[in-house]
Amino acid sequence: MEAGLDLITRLAPDKQGRRQRTTAHAWVSDQADSGVIGIVGLTLSAPDALLDAAADADLPFVMIDPVDTHHRRMVSVCLSNWAGARAATDHLIGLGHRRLGWIGGPEASIAARDRLYGYRAALYAAHL
């Protein structure tokens, strides 16, 4: 607020569109034309064309928990998914629950796999 900036939530193009350079460039251009000064992508799969388009437009782009990219220019922030899943599962076990289910994210997601491994580690430690 002190800087006079607003946080705006917008949907990125669908996965098919994110893979097409022309769609990605058009979307990024629309963001820049509307006054956007940076983009934060939250767990986007197939973001490479968007990352390229943002770089071409000189628009900062940060990914949170990237799914299926190892883009050389990507700046990302990753959460401690393993520790979070382990703590959540330990908490449920501590409450006396012994039959726990798992609903995970896409297999291509490193974050989803880390959460699964944290969950499994807690079950293993509790001999469940």
Automatic annotation (TrEMBL):
Pfam families tied to this protein: Peripla_BP_1 (PF00532)
Q: Which GO terms describe its molecular function?
A: DNA-binding transcription factor activity; transcription cis-regulatory region binding
The record's section on InterPro entries has: Peripla_BP/Lac1_sug-bd_dom, Peripla_BP_I
Q: Which SUPFAM superfamilies does the entry link to?
A: Periplasmic binding protein-like I (SSF53822)
Name of this chain's protein: LacI family transcriptional regulator
Q: Where is the Periplasmic binding protein/LacI sugar binding domain?
A: 33-126
